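Try this one yourself first.
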């Protein structure tokens, strides 16, 4: 059951974001020391001990990190971030849309269950639906869609024309909106991130896995954004049914967050996975960037999804408590 009201004609995901200062010792014991619980009684849950070498011990500890690109992971409610690969700015493609949605919802907040104002589709957004080799949503000039509808088109099928439409609606022009995106990035401490457009189509929009993780942590605190990215599909009046490009949803506890792919960017995935242990739910967050860059967008995305899935399963295997028999 979802924590938030579910509007009619939509499929919503269930998301819980919990904090816990004790999570620090659960996930990121990167210094020599195991976790407690080694000698529990019969049938009792005990936390697994982390290897002395930390998360990087791939072969012996069931954590398979991506062999290329860059990665960052963190457990919500804790400070440390673990990274692999050089954290240098690279194109991030449609991961950009997470910041677009974050800025729109910051300026025009919605409560769970609210649809928001109706926004008119301009001629530019309608024209862009049939031009170029971009991910777009077919919309008609003059039609009016709710803010929620447009956010779904932005985040699920990853429509570039909708990203630019929302930017114009929010700030008057995409250029003015990009300045708001950059200010938001600076406020979040994303100092290795540069936004040059609302959709991510521009190769000049670059970031690092560590920076994207900072955004993910903040974005997943917004219940409306959380609910949308957890949805496998949605029905948008006047457009029809749209599907989420994140095919990991519903597997390995995955409840978000956003895909992104292009030839220069390769495949990218910003992900969130729920960990249920000790009567609590914690959110494991990660970013996998630059997988199979300079191939096709579909090949890059497939590689990012595969790499992230293996990493998530490995981390969950180390996080989830073991059952001891005495």
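Now uncover the answer:
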């Amino acid at each position: 059951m979802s924590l938030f009201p579910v509007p009619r004609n939509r499929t919503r995901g269930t998301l819980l974001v919990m904090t816990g200062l004790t999570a620090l010792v659960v996930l990121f014991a990167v210094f020599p020391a195991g976790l407690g619980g080694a000698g529990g009684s019969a049938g009792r849950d005990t936390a697994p001990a982390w290897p002395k070498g930390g998360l990087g011990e791939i072969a012996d500890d069931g954590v398979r990190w991506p062999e290329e690109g860059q990665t960052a992971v963190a457990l919500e409610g804790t400070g440390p971030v673990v990274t692999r690969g050089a954290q240098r700015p690279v194109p991030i493609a449609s991961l950009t849309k997470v910041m677009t949605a974050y800025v729109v919802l910051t300026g025009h907040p919605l409560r769970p269950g609210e649809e928001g104002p109706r926004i008119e589709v301009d001629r530019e957004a309608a024209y862009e639906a049939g031009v170029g080799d971009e991910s777009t949503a077919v919309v008609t000039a003059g039609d009016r869609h709710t803010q929620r509808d447009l956010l779904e088109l932005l985040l699920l099928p990853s429509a570039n024309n909708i990203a630019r439409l929302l930017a114009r609606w929010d700030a008057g022009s995409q250029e003015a909106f990009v300045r708001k995106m950059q200010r938001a990035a600076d406020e979040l401490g994303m100092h290795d991130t540069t936004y040059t457009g609302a959709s991510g189509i521009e190769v000049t929009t670059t970031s690092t896995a560590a920076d994207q993780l900072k955004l993910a942590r903040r974005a997943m605190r917004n219940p409306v954004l959380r609910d949308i990215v957890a949805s496998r599909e949605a029905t948008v009046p006047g457009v029809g049914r749209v599907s989420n490009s994140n095919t990991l949803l519903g597997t390995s506890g995955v409840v978000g967050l956003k895909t992104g792919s292009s030839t220069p960017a390769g495949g990218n995935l910003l992900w969130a996975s729920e960990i249920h242990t000790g009567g609590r739910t914690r959110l494991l967050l990660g970013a996998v960037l630059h997988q199979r860059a300079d191939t096709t967008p579909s090949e890059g995305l497939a590689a990012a999804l595969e790499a992230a899935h293996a990493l998530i399963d490995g981390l969950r295997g180390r996080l989830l408590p073991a059952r001891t028999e005495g």
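Discussion: The two ends are 36 Å apart (CA to CA). Residues 267 and 304 are 5 Å apart (CA to CA).
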